[in-house]
Amino acid sequence: MSNLSLRERDAATIAQIGKLRFSPLSVIGGRGNRLIEEGGRSLLDLSGSAGPAVLGYGHPAIVEAVETSIRDMAGASLL
After folding, report:
1. How far, in Å, are 1, 20, 49 from residue 16 at the CA level?
2. What's the domain range around 36?
3. What is the pLDDT of residues 23-60, one digit of tens each?
4. Burial, 35: exposed, middle or buried (Cβ in 10 Å; 0-12, 13-18, 19+)?
5. What secondary structure letter does DSSP report for 25?
6. Alpha helices per DSSP H over the chain
7. What separation in angstroms does the CA of 78 have from each of 4, 34, 70?
8. What is the pTM assigned to this prediction?
9. Structurally, how many domains does the chain consist of?
10. Is the CB of residue 31 less than 8 Å from the CB of residue 24?
């Protein structure tokens, strides 16, 4: 997916909610206190929300807990 298509999708959807605008960033992931752009550039996240600000992105203990939870819930039903 190109940066342009991500910007177009943002403009058509997310940016319309409260007229937020985060371009030209096209973030595809994060690790620790860094965000990773589609082109591979690593950026220091200075405005992370509560979880990432305290624990960082992709914290090993959090990833393990989520993976375990997902495995344990396999086949679970809310009915």
Report:
1. 21, 7, 20
2. 3-72
3. 677 888 888 989 898 889 998 888 777 777 778 888 89
4. buried
5. -
6. 3-12, 50-55, 60-72
7. 40, 36, 15
8. 0.52
9. 1
10. no
Output the domain CATH number for residue 54.
3.90.1150.10
Please check whether residue 11 lies inside any domain of the structure. Answer: yes
Residue 54 is assigned to a structural domain of this protein: yes
**CB 10, CB 23: distance < 8 Å:** yes
Match 């690790």 to its residue by tokens: 31
Specify if 52 maps to a domain.
yes
To which residue do tokens 């929300």 refer?
49
| Residues contacting 45, CB < 8 A, separation 6+ | 30, 33, 34, 35, 52, 53, 57
Answer whether residue 53 is part of any domain: yes
